[in-house]
Amino acid sequence: MSTYPVTPIVELGSTTIQRVVELEKWDFPPELLFELSPELLEEARREFDWRSVDPQTGKLILSAHTWVIRAQGRTILVDTCNGNHKQRPVFGNVHLLNEPYLERLAAAGVRPDEVDVVMCTHLHPDHIGWNTQLVDGTWVPTFPNAAYLMSPVDFADMTDWYDHGERRFELDHDLARSWEDSVLPVIEHGLAQFVDPDHVIVDELAHGVRLEAMPGHTRGHAGVLIEGGGRTAVATGDAFHHLLQLNHPEIGNLADRDPEQAQATRRGLFERFADTDTIVLPGHFPAPSAGRIVSRGDRLEFRFLGQD
């Protein structure tokens, strides 16, 4: 079986984007991600290689990774995966994870104290985990000099649920723990910034990094549009999760807050970026993760960088 390809550094003029992985192969029984008919599952097995569907078990495979953007002297992280040592007995087989994520950041030239911005596309556990790390039994912000950007809508929704919602399922307890260990410490240290979905992070010398609303998975879910050197890339967070959704945008993730809006967001993104030079940076596609959406007859495919 092939090894995972190395993700190239995306260059947009002087702005660069690099992928730092936490989990390269994060597999899920299909029914934990989507409602799939046997026909759609068979299509996934037929259409996609071992990086996206396990040929033996039929499990769907995701990746957990961070996009590192360097623009105009600023270092920006988009989503921080699951995190180590976190109590997640139910959520996605990441209970008490112990991955060398910080070492991988260091290999990419990123020191935690040099990070300027941590962008949380939304506040689900697998996108906020490395917001904090365990130090002497206490959860503290991993990136002590960074502004952690969060949606005020998502924060309000999660605060209301945490304060007043029922814990009807075991997963609810994992979600509550993620709030306690990965969000509240950032708030307590005064590092959170609540920003609108069109917030601009960088706007200098024809280089831009700004947020863009991509609602549905959560009400405040946002992606990141990156521009430089006359080129564009877009980090899409959890607007879509798996390659199967390219030709079946009606397939929603079971965690979508507003399934109808999430489907509209997916369709809009696919239509907008198909057959353009825009580099798409999904939150969970397998290595190398970055690529372009291209037409193949009446279907879409994701052409990973390096396949051109």
Automatic annotation (TrEMBL):
InterPro entries documented for this protein: MBL_superfamily_lactonases, Metallo-B-lactamas, RibonucZ/Hydroxyglut_hydro
CDD domains given in the database record: metallo-hydrolase-like_MBL-fold
Keywords: Hydrolase, Metal-binding, Zinc
PANTHER family reported for this sequence: QUORUM-QUENCHING LACTONASE YTNP-RELATED, QUORUM-QUENCHING LACTONASE YTNP-RELATED-RELATED
A Pfam family this chain is assigned to: Lactamase_B
GO MF term set: hydrolase activity; metal ion binding
UniProt family annotation: Belongs to the metallo-beta-lactamase superfamily.
Protein name as catalogued: Unannotated protein
All copies of domain Metallo-beta-lactamase, residue ranges: 63-284
Organism listed in the record: freshwater metagenome
